């Protein structure tokens, strides 16, 4: 089967998978590609990894368009995603209404599962929050860092720790079996990121890539986007 190839932030993986059958019925094409830290995916495109479209942060898409790697006229917003807290499904949910609450939640965890703190949107934000709360050094030995949020959440689901917690994009939490969305980060620690799609300038299948973007962003798919963790 011919496929449309994607390079995407992990935040969009659940939504893309959920629409793959509808896309196949519409175009006859399958969907393939890589999902991971947005910085890594952008660098893969720069290194000429074959891709028909990318789904990354709005800021990164703008840069890639300036670099003439993405067609500006094809760019469309998919939706906003918050960085949130996660627990294993069998564990009690945690509540962090203030920065002080969050500090105590993180201090009380014996393992903290997060994505790449240098290349991923959520991971970079977690590192900033730990600094802001003044506990980066205190919890450093408990950080469990993985290449992307999806991997971090799978590892959290399988964790043998007594009091583990995770922090990544809400969409990655929702898409992971054995994990529950525990709540938003409190004011002053929150992050909401707009994810945006665009057809690459070297696309082998630009028309089909545009059709997939239309499917991902269409008004008739709003409810599906919301179930996956995207907001307007």
Summary keywords:
single chain, about 230 residues, alpha/beta, D-Maltodextrin-Binding Protein, domain 2, 2 domains, nine-stranded mixed sheet, about 25% strand
Explain what this protein looks like in three dimensions.
The protein has helices at residues 13-27, 38-46, 58-66, 99-108, 121-133, 136-139, 149-157, 170-174, 206-217, 222-228; strands spanning 3-9, 30-36, 53-57, 76-88, 111-115, 143-146, 164-169, 179-184, 192-199. The protein is an alpha/beta fold and 232 residues long. It folds into two domains: 3-80 and 194-228, Periplasmic binding protein-like II (D-Maltodextrin-Binding Protein, domain 2, 3-Layer(aba) Sandwich); 81-184, Periplasmic binding protein-like II (D-Maltodextrin-Binding Protein, domain 2, 3-Layer(aba) Sandwich). Strands 1, 2, 3, 4, 5, 6, 7, 8 and 9 form a nine-stranded mixed β-sheet that branches. Helix 1 (13-27) links the parallel strand 1 and strand 2 (30-36). Helix 1 (13-27) packs across helix 9 (206-217). The radius of gyration is 18 Å and the shape is elongated. It starts with a strand and ends with a helix.
Write the layout of secondary structure elements.
Elements lengths: L2 E7 L3 H15 L2 E7 L1 H9 L6 E5 H9 L9 E13 L10 H10 L2 E5 L5 H13 L2 H4 L3 E4 L2 H9 L6 E6 H5 L4 E6 L7 E8 L6 H12 L4 H7 L4
Parallel strand pairs: 1-2, 1-3, 5-6, 5-7
Antiparallel strand pairs: 3-9, 4-7, 4-8, 4-9
């Amino acid at each position: 089967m011919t496929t449309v190839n994607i390079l995407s932030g992990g935040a969009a993986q659940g939504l893309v998978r959920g629409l793959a059958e509808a896309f196949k019925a519409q175009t006859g094409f399958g969907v393939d590609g890589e999902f991971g830290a947005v910085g890594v995916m952008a660098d893969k495109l720069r290194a000429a990894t074959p891709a028909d479209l990318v789904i990354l942060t709005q800021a990164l898409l703008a840069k890639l368009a300036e670099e003439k790697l993405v067609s500006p006229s094809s760019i469309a917003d998919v939706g906003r995603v918050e960085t949130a807290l996660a627990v294993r499904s069998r564990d009690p949910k945690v509540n962090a209404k203030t920065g002080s609450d969050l500090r105590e939640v993180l201090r009380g965890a014996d393992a903290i599962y997060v994505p790449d703190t240098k290349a991923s949107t959520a991971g970079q934000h977690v590192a900033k929050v730990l600094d802001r709360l003044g506990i980066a050094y205190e919890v450093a030995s408990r950080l469990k860092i993985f290449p992307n949020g999806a991997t971090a959440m799978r590892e959290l689901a399988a964790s043998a720790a007594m009091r583990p917690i995770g922090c990544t994009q809400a969409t990655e939490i929702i898409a992971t079996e054995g994990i529950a969305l525990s709540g938003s980060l409190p004011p002053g620690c929150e992050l909401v990121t707009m994810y945006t799609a665009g057809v690459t300038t070297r696309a082998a299948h630009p028309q089909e890539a545009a059709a997939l973007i239309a499917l991902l962003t269409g008004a008739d798919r709003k409810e599906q986007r919301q179930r996956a963790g995207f907001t307007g």
